[in-house]
Structure formats: C-alpha cells, structure tokens
Amino acid sequence: SACVFSLSALAILVNGPDICSGRVERQYFSKWGTVCDACWDMRAASVLCRQLNCGIAVSVVGSDWFGEGSDEIWADVFDCDGNETKLSECSISSWSRAECSHRRDVGVICSPLALHDGLVQLSGERQCEGEVEVFIHQVWRRVLLDSWSLTESSVVCRQLGCGSVLNFYGSSSSRPEHSHECVTGFQCSGSEAHLGNCSSPQTLNCSSTQQLSITCCRSIRLVGSGGDCAGRLEVFHSGSWGTVCDDSWDIKDAHVVCRQLQCGVALSNQQVPAWFGPGSGPIWLDDVACEGNETSLWSCSSPGWGKHDCQHKEDVGVVCSGKQ
C-alpha cells in the first residue's frame, strides 16, 4: 500500500546544462541512484521542479537526453497530486526493479532554462490531453493536423510520460494569443523517445488548416517480463491498477492490447494461468470479447468494471511482437 516516504525528499537533476534540467537522481539511506521512467510523471516532475526552486516542469524525458546513470535504480512510484512543495509530501508505492534498467533513467526539464528544440506540451485542462505545442527555434509553436499520424502521436504520449494514444484530432485553436506560426511535417518511426529525434518539420502560417490535439491514456500496461510488450495485463480504473481475468480471453483480445500499446501483433495467447505471475489489487475485467480490429481494449465488450468470478491465479498475460 502507498505510504509517505520522507527519505525520498533529497533529489537533484544532474548532467544537464544547469541545475534545473537533467537526469533525476535521489538519495535513499546515503545511497544515490536514478529513477525508472515507469515510476515518474509530469505531476512528480512539477513537485521536483518546485522543490529545487526551478519553476515549473516543462517535460519528462528519457535517458537519451541526459545520459544513463550508474549504481542504484530506485523504482518507487511517486503518487503526487502535483501541488506538493516537495517529494516527501507525495505518497509512494513500489514498482518491480526487474522491469527497469539504466536505459530507462528518467530526466526532467524545468523552467526557467535554455529550452531544447523538440519539447512538447499539451494545452488542455487535464493532464495528458489538449492542443499540441512544440518548442522549435526558441518559440512554442502549434502543430498542424496535416501529415500527422498515430505514429507521431505515440511519440508525444511517450515523451510526456502519458502512456498510449487514445485519439488525435484537428480543431480550431483556442489559443489565439500564441505565435501565428505553426509546424507540420514531423515524420517519426514510432520508437523515438521524443519529437526532437524525428525528422525536422517545416513552419507555416497557422490559418491554413486545423491545429492538432491529442488525448493520451496511460491506462493499460504489460508487466512482469522486463519489457513493455509482454507481461501480465493490467488496466487502470478508479485510481488503481488491476488485472484482467483470462475467462474467454483469446488471440483477438490480445491483438487489440498489442495494437493499443503500439507493440505490433500478438504472438501467442498463453492459456497457462498467471503466466507472468499473479497480480494484486482489484480484478477489473472479465469475459472480455473483442472482434480483433478495435483500436483499444475499451472498445471491446465485457460485463463491466469489477464484475468477475476469478482469482489472481487466473490473471491473463499477453505476448506481443514488439514495438512498431
């Protein structure tokens, strides 16, 4: 269960251009170590920036920004509201260290600082959704819907620590006070950690077409294998992660999960109960029935949240082909 962990308060940003950007390192019982990116989000980043007197959080980034650390990897999940003044005020829960490596060391960029091209922010009222803005040539610019795809959307959601793509769409901008120049032409493979690694876009007048908005959804994950594309299926609902029962589960259901996670196609449908180990907490779904062509698990039918006759020894696992 989550608890207040006062010893987690001492944290710094290292290997960046200044003290307000860099790889996150924190001290626990006199040992310094890095933080796994699976355990960090923009709310925790906002608290850390505030704690360091570095203004607001601009972005959560991967190890390719500020390099990989060494020594310990701390796998504590900070459950912050985002308005705390220091990390010790956030409750934490634990994450499996087996799923983390220094390739997943998280970095944070706070403002004020010399901003990096390729930073992304979403202008919506809720975290992980809204109109997309990218920092290009020292200016925040809106992104046009033209030539944008699910591939680029997945990079943005990953860069922001917001999980997978729920949808993306075009709309008239609600922020006329911003620059009249927009960007278009991003081309990503889908494996990039941030938009700065994708092909360079071009700038043009914003009035020509609709501006891009994205809704990300960190609500599904595969755990227990050491990678992102295989493991016990867990879904997030009503504030907590839970599992899915393997009753009626088949390869079509697995295909939908792999598609939603941008992990290719399902390689197999393991019928061995709890193939990746039993989970804990609620069992959120049972008797899931997908056609196989849905874009997310939420489009499939089921009896409803929490309705099941299962035990955790029946938690379903999924094996996907890998990142697309």
From TrEMBL:
Keywords of the record: Disulfide bond, Glycoprotein, Membrane, Repeat, Secreted, Signal, Transmembrane, Transmembrane helix
Chief location of this protein within or outside the cell: membrane
Disulfide-bonded cysteines: 36-100, 49-110, 80-90, 188-198, 290-300
GO molecular function, one term: serine-type endopeptidase activity
Stretch forming the signal peptide: 1-22
InterPro entries assigned to the protein according to its UniProt record, in alphabetical order: SRCR (IPR001190), SRCR-like_dom_sf (IPR036772)
Organism superkingdom: Eukaryota
Pfam families in alphabetical order: SRCR
Cellular component annotations (GO), alphabetically ordered: extracellular space; plasma membrane
Domain SRCR: 11-111, 119-217, 220-321
Compartments reported by the entry: Membrane; Secreted
Protein's GO biological process: zymogen activation
SMART domains attached to this UniProt entry: SR (SM00202)
Topology versus the membrane: Single-pass membrane protein
Protein name: Si:ch211-161n3.4
